[in-house]
Design a protein that fits this description.
By secondary structure, the protein is α+β, with helices and mostly antiparallel strands. It has one domain. Strands 1, 2, 3, 4, 5, 6 and 7 form a seven-stranded mixed beta sheet that branches. The longest helix is centred in the middle third of the chain and has 18 residues. The chain starts with a strand and ends in a 17-residue tail after the last strand.
Length: 108
Amino acid sequence: MLVSKHGCGAVLERTPAGQPRFAVGPGLLVGNGIARLVDGGYQKFWQDDFRRLPALADQLAALQRFVQDLRAVMGVTTLYNEALGTVSARYIYDRLEGREEPKSHKPF
């Protein structure tokens, strides 16, 4: 079920116990989908399957309000880092680019 407010949205589903959980986490409504927040180290971006857009301050504030409202309604515990501000779905820093692959050692 899609829930939305302030131009942001998330998709919820029920657990076998009947509790709500995120099927698709909170993000900005872009077209027919939900763009996730990505931290580029120097700037935050909205990214979906087709595009990457810079995140504006008003959009980040709207996402934070939406997440706070949603967590309150769902009765989910808010963690310390989530209470401080907007949490990104992914963190991508230029200085870490390419470190995901294991190092290949060449024989002497």
